[in-house]
Amino acid sequence: MVDLNKLSKPALSAAMRGGTEGWGEMGSSTMNVRYIDLAPPRSRRRCHCGCEGRATHRGLANGVCLVSGCQMAILRWVKTGSTKVRTAPAPRPDAPTSQIKIRTYCDDCGKSVSDEPDGIHTCSPQYGKSGSAASGQGGGT
């Protein structure tokens, strides 16, 4: 049995939320409550998140240290389970970019404006809804 009086505040909070069964013997980042704690001040390890700073914090689950890194990396690990930032995948170099066509649609009629030969759509406000400037519906006086 673990002595709850000797636990740090984050460890006590995690123990109260997740239970103390197997505390300090086995920890799982998916099954147990993840929490952050300070690393020993003499630690010379470096963070692996990409910042190349010192690993000042530890990520623990069920009293077992699972990961170490900078404060931001460990806070990210506590929240998401991963210390690295997830970025959008880079476009493949062999992907054809010339075949990508962006379509724009008219707000009034819903037709595709990008298919027009000169980019001028016939129901645009300068021509009126009917498509001719001489019809008197073009807003002219």
Structure write-up:
The chain has 2 domains: 4-80, no CATH class; 100-132, no CATH class. The protein has 2 helices and 3 strands; from the N terminus they run αβββα. It has helices spanning 9-18, 71-80, and strands spanning 34-38, 57-61, 64-69.
Features:
141 residues; little secondary structure; 2 domains
Helix tally equals 2
Inertia-based shape: elongated
Count of separate structural domains:
2
What's the alpha carbon Rg, rounded to whole Å? 30 Å
Query: Which strand order does the major sheet show?
Result: 1-2-3
Topology (SSEs and partners):
Layout lengths: L8 H10 L15 E5 L18 E5 L2 E6 L1 H10 L61
Antiparallel strand pairs: 1-2, 2-3
Would you summarize the structure shown here?
With 141 residues, the chain is largely without helices or strands. Helix content is 14%, strand content 11%.
